[in-house]
Structure formats: structure tokens, C-alpha cells
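Whiteboard transcription, Tuesday session. T.W. wrote the C-alpha cells on the left side:
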């Protein structure tokens, strides 16, 4: 056997061991989680279904916050906390564990299970039914309803296709940016380098036909890398028949900014405001110290003109920078983000809103403000997965006051893994008008959130156990369309009012 073959086989074997190891780690992480073990050792004898006291893991006090449960533990069980020598964050971690159990949050692997309700759903303000439009292929990520009733569909590892008005998914559109097959599938999630992400229509699509795609552009030897590296890029084009034509690169960064970090944290969500400016999100595809470096694209929301030029009123715009040709600071709009998985426009004001995933807790809905610092990784309501405070911000030497950051309008703790969302703006569900309809991955839940005067006045779970919700969009018919990711497939459903 030749030396090269032996090396190749050795690398394949090593790679397989790494994948198996990561798979085992993710699939057993919940069982090994420190606060679960602490609850079983110190609390379950009294506060579980088989205990002597009230079962804390049921829906009793279901509306408690993590802070309220934390304070209750500290006051009522101070002796236990002292005897067990719980560090300060462990008490909050116990509170999070109780809330996660009450909300029946599944593991990441189990979140791919799905069930589409067949009966009428009775919510607080509307009764509705759920219609299955079609099942789709592997890795669905985003949709964009068209004025004629068809729907554009993006599947991360397959590309762009069109679902017709009869619910039939067509062949992949030819001529779009290339996508690559997954490197591995761990816990039902894809590890990919080179995927398609979001699809968005130009605000004046009816007259110009422009469609925008965010994808993870990939290069290797052609950009001097011995292994594949990727980065979010935005292109636009038009759809003629089943072909992508007139393709143009609208937003990109220097290939020196491409990284080997998989696309799961790429984000790549798109939105347009009422002035026609476009926005794209970039997740933490690098080390966290780069999230606050303006010359890097990571952990930021970027703003661009619809034709790809750079607005000179962007908050960090410096014009030509001959000293750093790789800088992406000119398009930075906000920074200090972790993983922005949702981006939408308030149809009343044109303001841009975003959902952001925290660690264990600290998922957020944010109003995006020019030049804003959103605090990660120095400030978060979440904990690390080892039941400790998030310390990486201090370890990196980040030093700014909380008052200098933009706090979330809505905090979700424990974290449901928020995904994309919309403002409802049709007469089909008049009692939801201007409410946020928010998808989630781990929680498999479609939330309805009402915000008045900058504060939450209603929060409701419209649907649960749907599977991993990747996208929520308003159709031109006024119905709500929801894209769900399963393990190897997905579903596109529609919410229709009854009565």
C-alpha cells in the first residue's frame, strides 16, 4: 500500500473518530449537564415526581422567571446551597434546569422530531388550522413568497428551487451560486462549508424582478488555503423560467476573512428597510475577540445599497483604506452579536429587528439601532453550558459598561434557540396585527409576541412540537407560512384562520 494511500486512510479514520466523538458529546451533553446532576443529587428527593414535596419540574409556577426561581432557592434553601457548596452561577443553572423541564425543551437531537396538528388550534386571540403545503428536501433554511402565489425555497445543501401554487417543488434553479454537500451530520444537524442561506425579494420586486441570495462562498487552493474556508456573501439576480440570470455580487469581504468555522454559525439573514437599504447578518465565524474589531465582518450586521455600493452614512465608514485592503468596516451597522438567526422589517416604521441566539439562556429579540453595540460576549443573561458565567469577554480583555450596549427588547431565558420571524400585517388574523411571530429550533415552537411602548405585553406559544422552525414569512395572500426542518427532510406549512 502506497504512502499517500496510507496517509489518506489515516486522515479518514481520524476524521471519522472526531465525528463520532462530537456526536457522542452532543447527544449525551444534556445527561451530563452539571445542573441536572446537581438537581438529581440534592433536590430530586423532595422536588420531583417521586419526591416528598411539590414537583418543581411540572408546570406549577410556569410563569416564573429564572431570577425569581433563583431567589426562591437562595431564600428557602440557603442551608442546602451552603452545604452543597454551590458556586453562585450553579443556583441560576438549577433555576434554568427547572424551567427547561417545565417547558419540555428537548435535546438538540430530539428537536428534529415533528408533528403537524390535524385539529383546529385554539389560541388566545384566533382559532386556526395548519395546512401542509408540501414536504421538502434536506436542510431547508428559508422561503420567500412571490406575488403570484409561488414560493422560493432555499435548502442549505441543495440550493434554490420554486414551489408552485399546487405545492409541487420544482427542480433546482440553474446558475445560482454553488453549494456543497455536508461534511458530516451530527445530532441531526449539518456541518457544512459552502451552503445557501437566505432569500429575499427586492422591495420593488414587482417592477425590477431582483432576488437577493445570501450564501456561504467557499474557496480553498484558489485563495491560498490548504483546506476549505467560507464566508457569507450576498448576490442578486433574476429568475427567468428555471434559470438564475443577471447575477451580481452585492456584498462580500476579502478572502483573507474567510474561515474554516462551519456554516452553522454563519447566520446570513437578509432584510430591507423602507429606504431600500439592505442588511445582512454575519455570525461568529471567527474567535470572539473579532466581534468588536470593526475591520472584521464577524458578529455584525452589515448595511449596503441595493446595487452593492456602500452607504457613506454607515456609522464606521472611512472610505478608502489603503493600509488595510481586507477591512470590512465600511459596511458595519451594528456589532457585538453572537448568532443572529433572524432579521425582519417592521412594516409600519421600516425599522430592522433581529433575533439572536444566546448560550444557555439569553436568546434575544433586538431593535437594531445605528452603530449599536449588542454586548456579546461581555454581557448576556445566559450561562455557559458548564453551569458557569460567561467569562470569555473578560478573558479577551473587553472593557465597556453595560450602559454602552443596546439591551434586548425581549429576553428568552431559558433559550428556545430563536430563528427567523416576522411582524404579522394582514387581515387574515386581525387580532395578531403587528404582533411578532417568532420561530425556534430547539423549542420547536412558534411564538406570538406583542410589544407595546418597548415592552412585552403578551407572549404566547401558538404551536409546539412542530420540529425545528427555520423560517416564518407572510404570504401575499395574508396567510402565515412556516418552514420546518426535520432530520433529512422538511415541511412547508401554512396557518389559515377558521370561523
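and on the right, the sequence the group agreed on:
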Amino acid at each position: 500500500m502506497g504512502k499517500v494511500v496510507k496517509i489518506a486512510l489515516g486522515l479518514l479514520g481520524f476524521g471519522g473518530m472526531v465525528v463520532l466523538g462530537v456526536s457522542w458529546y452532543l447527544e449525551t451533553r444534556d445527561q451530563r449537564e452539571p445542573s441536572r446532576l446537581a438537581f438529581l443529587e440534592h433536590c430530586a428527593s423532595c422536588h420531583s415526581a417521586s419526591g416528598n414535596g411539590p414537583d418543581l419540574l411540572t408546570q406549577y409556577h410556569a410563569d416564573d422567571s429564572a431570577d425569581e426561581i433563583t431567589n426562591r432557592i437562595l431564600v428557602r434553601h440557603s442551608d442546602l446551597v451552603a452545604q452543597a457548596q454551590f458556586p453562585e452561577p450553579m443556583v441560576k443553572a438549577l433555576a434554568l434546569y427547572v424551567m427547561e423541564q417545565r417547558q419540555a425543551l428537548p435535546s438538540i437531537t430530539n428537536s428534529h422530531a415533528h408533528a403537524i396538528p390535524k385539529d383546529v388550534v385554539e389560541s388566545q386571540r384566533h382559532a386556526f388550522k395548519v395546512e401542509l403545503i408540501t414536504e421538502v428536501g434536506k436542510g431547508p433554511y428559508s422561503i420567500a413568497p412571490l406575488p403570484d402565489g409561488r414560493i422560493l425555497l432555499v435548502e442549505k445543501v441543495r440550493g434554490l428551487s420554486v414551489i408552485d401554487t399546487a405545492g409541487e417543488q420544482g427542480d433546482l434553479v440553474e446558475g445560482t451560486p454553488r453549494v456543497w454537500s455536508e461534511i458530516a451530520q451530527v445530532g441531526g444537524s449539518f456541518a457544512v462549508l459552502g451552503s445557501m442561506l437566505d432569500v429575499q425579494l427586492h422591495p420593488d420586486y414587482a417592477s425590477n424582478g431582483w432576488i437577493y441570495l445570501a450564501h456561504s462562498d467557499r474557496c480553498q487552493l484558489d485563495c491560498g488555503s490548504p483546506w476549505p474556508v467560507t464566508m457569507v456573501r450576498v448576490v442578486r439576480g433574476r429568475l427567468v423560467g428555471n434559470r438564475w440570470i443577471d447575477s451580481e455580487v452585492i456584498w462580500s469581504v476579502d478572502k483573507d476573512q474567510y474561515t474554516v468555522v462551519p456554516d452553522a454559525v454563519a447566520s446570513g439573514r437578509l432584510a430591507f428597510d423602507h429606504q431600500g437599504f439592505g442588511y445582512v447578518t454575519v455570525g461568529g465565524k471567527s474567535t470572539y475577540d473579532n466581534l468588536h474589531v470593526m475591520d472584521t465582518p464577524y458578529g455584525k450586521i452589515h448595511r449596503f445599497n441595493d446595487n452593492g455600493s456602500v452607504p457613506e452614512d454607515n456609522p464606521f465608514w472611512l472610505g478608502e483604506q489603503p493600509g488595510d485592503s481586507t477591512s470590512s468596516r465600511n459596511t458595519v451597522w451594528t456589532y457585538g452579536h453572537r448568532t443572529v438567526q433572524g432579521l425582519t422589517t417592521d412594516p409600519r416604521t421600516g425599522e430592522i429587528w433581529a433575533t439572536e441566539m444566546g448560550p444557555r439562556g439569553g436568546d434575544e429579540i433586538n431593535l437594531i439601532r445605528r452603530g449599536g453595540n449588542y454586548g456579546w460576549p461581555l454581557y448576556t443573561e445566559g450561562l455557559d453550558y458548564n453551569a458557569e458565567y460567561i467569562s470569555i469577554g473578560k478573558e479577551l480583555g473587553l472593557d465597556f459598561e453595560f450602559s454602552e450596549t443596546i439591551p434586548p427588547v425581549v429576553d428568552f431565558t431559558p433559550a428556545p434557540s430563536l430563528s427567523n420571524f416576522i411582524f404579522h400585517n394582514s387581515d387574515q388574523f386581525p387580532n395578531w396585527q403587528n404582533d411578532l411571530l417568532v420561530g425556534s429550533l430547539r423549542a420547536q415552537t412558534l411564538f406570538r409576541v406583542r410589544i407595546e411602548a418597548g415592552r412585552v405585553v403578551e407572549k404566547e406559544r401558538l404551536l409546539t412540537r412542530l420540529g425545528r422552525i427555520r423560517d416564518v414569512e407572510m404570504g401575499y395572500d395574508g396567510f402565515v407560512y412556516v418552514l420546518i426542518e426535520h432530520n433529512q427532510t422538511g415541511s412547508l406549512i401554512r396557518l389559515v384562520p377558521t370561523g
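Someone added at the bottom: The longest strand covers residues 229-240.
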